[in-house]
């Protein structure tokens, strides 16, 4: 622990600071989206940027996601680094053709001559009592698209570091912001240069010996809580925060699973066709002889995201995670 | 007093009087497509421009014929011909300055070539290769866009970015009549007008979106009329009159360069060939229609004017023909050589640095190639 004065900050503040610092450091960084200017975004993540840098650098666009992303592509073609805000997970879908057919492919189809250094910020996931179309876990769509990086922070420090890294990246990054963690607080020193992490590295949030919980974004704090609760059951759980879904850090994940011999993947996204299936397969392919039990998944149900009054039944919680841990064939050890 | 009258007595202060935000009248296209050839205006056309357009059109027609022939010889995977549309293709390239940008659709390789890109590079993608060939920055030509109208917002963003940087750059974006039905067409025009971006949208209305005629595509008075809804001028031009297209596009480019914002130009033309070599146009249109349009051929229209004014002698025709043949012979010769394809390069440009997963997969393919394996049933 350093002795530098660190103040509690929210993830929202860290994200704002990341964009502010990136804009100050590089005049080619432009923020654009719906309500990002005068209002500062519906979640206030772009608060103050238009005032500090002017509306040409933090621009309220017409309400049209394909147009926002499509024009951002053109700006990136001209050497700018657009940071696009999609207002909500499910409102990003109109931009999918631009994303899949151009953002993800332009570097490749121009043989590297036309990279598109742009960041697409998407508030995602549930748990905030949002009405329909405001709580989707859309990460599997992005993960299935070669050419995109898919990054999601779970801590205040990572929100800053990973967003800075995403804006600095010469590749397009879909930056998924767990909206229910926007107001989570942590002691965080924004002036610590080590806080900018490279994209593509997972981190062990909690060391343990019994089993590994593999998770990311909004489910990380839930897994940390589950790991604490598991101590009463005699389980010492390790928690791996992926931070980046693409590129995927097989190395960190598999090193952990080889140590513990058991793994549960936890995410809000639906299980069928969700990230957990890919992760479980990768772990099984690479760690088969170290596994004491099949890799299990705790995911959202395969439902359209439920209404606010019922979402607590859908979201993976501590009990459901502990139930899964309990099914990791411990009887073989006794 | 009735209830309604009582309510009227309590009517709140009305809002300020409504007024249109822009006077729509100057934005409206002319009732008829603008024409120069065959009219009195033709006498004022610059002889140099007429000769240049003629030479480029002749070359363009030969390019289309050669590319179509290459599909029959298996040297091009597919070719969407712009035969009959050469006036639009050529004029789009000629009106731009060196620093400007062209945003072509898949049917616009002729415009790309007219802008200075090597035809072999312009046809790379249609050859069946994995990339778009030319370096977009070299001639400031965006990569060919296959998904309809998706290149239009790119043009708007690029032009907007250039203006923010204080650069003198105009973007000209090309799209077909079918593409105007896409959402990206609408969003691009809206963004361009709101931002007053220096963009010119050229719609080549060639009558068909593959098989679907314009009547099934839109109920608008004309495609140019759509401009008015966005607050930009719409211009209607005879797309087979190279001089008229050149003049209307040059005006729009000048307007954009001067800070006047975007223009939508609809050029009325006709797709003489099928959609591509893989299409059969006889299933949806008759020969007589095609023949009618062939009598309104862009090269014939121009030659009539040039000959009438004594600007085109046999020597000039022969020179244009010889230049076109030389281009076609060179294209043929180089397209008949197999391109150097390295399957390993498929992994090189997906990201700036390949992901660990791509590195693993690249090694798998490398091992397969080293073992001499050819994928079973794979097309060569």
From TrEMBL, chain A:
It is an enzyme of class 1 (oxidoreductase). One of its GO terms (biological process) is branched-chain amino acid catabolic process. InterPro entries: THDP-binding (IPR029061), Transketo_C/PFOR_II (IPR009014), Transketolase-like_Pyr-bd (IPR005475), Transketolase_C (IPR033248). GO terms for molecular function: branched-chain 2-oxo acid dehydrogenase activity; magnesium ion binding. It comes from the Bacteria. Keywords: Oxidoreductase. Its EC number is 1.2.4.4. Its cofactor is thiamine diphosphate. This is 3-methyl-2-oxobutanoate dehydrogenase (2-methylpropanoyl-transferring). It comes from Streptomyces fungicidicus.
